[in-house]
Amino acid sequence: MPHGVPCVEQDGFLVSMTALQDPKINDACDLAKYVDAVTVPALVIPKGSNGFSARNVHVGGLAVVMPRHDKAPIYAVVGDIGPADELGEGTVGLARLALNKTADPVNYDEVRGRGKCAGKGWEIPYSYVLIFRGHARHQRPVHDD
């Protein structure tokens, strides 16, 4: 939201501004500036002094997510910073892989399990998460293209 003004909807989506950004793109409302949460497996780390920053875990870092029910690891990126007292948020792209889904969700109600999709939400199962320490030097956010 540049200067307190919301970005105009693009292709039916609002711009989700993530902490992992492409510094070469100046337009804050350009979707390409940020991680594509629909396709890219990414997770959120808590902000503030909570042990992550003290352990040199930062936005842009790499992670491996291992759902307890599956033997295949999911490789992800730390794409954003969230509330100081919460851990566990992941992108739709991460949920798609953790749930072995082959298609993107039809709409937000499908992801949240609301309306006609009640009881069928995209909830990531309990998983083991390994986040690698150190900085990852990205030229631009990861996009699944």
Brief synopsis:
The protein has helices at 92-98, 108-112, and strands at residues 42-46, 62-67, 74-82, 127-131. With 145 residues, it is mostly beta strands. It has one domain.
How would you sum up this structure, described in words?
By secondary structure, the protein is mostly beta strands. It has one domain (2-131). Helices cover 8% and strands 17% of the residues. Strands 1-3-2-4 form a 4-stranded mixed beta sheet. Strand 2 and strand 3 (74-82) form a beta hairpin. The chain is globular. 23% of the residues are buried. The mean pLDDT is 83.
Write the layout of secondary structure elements.
Blueprint: E1 42-46, E2 62-67, E3 74-82, H1 92-98, H2 108-112, E4 127-131
Parallel strand pairs: 1-3
Antiparallel strand pairs: 2-3, 2-4
As residue ranges, the low-confidence spans are none
Helix content: under 10%
Question: Which class best fits the helix and strand makeup?
Answer: mainly beta
Looking at how many chains there are and whether they match, the oligomeric state comes to: single chain
Number of domains: 1
Characterize the biggest β-sheet: 4 strands, mixed
Count of distinct strands: 4
Radius of gyration, in Å, reads: 16 Å
N/C terminus separation: 25 Å
Average pLDDT: 83
Order of helices and strands: EEEHHE
Shape: globular
With strands numbered from the N-terminus, the spatial order across the biggest sheet is: 1-3-2-4
Strand content: 15-25%
Helix tally?
2
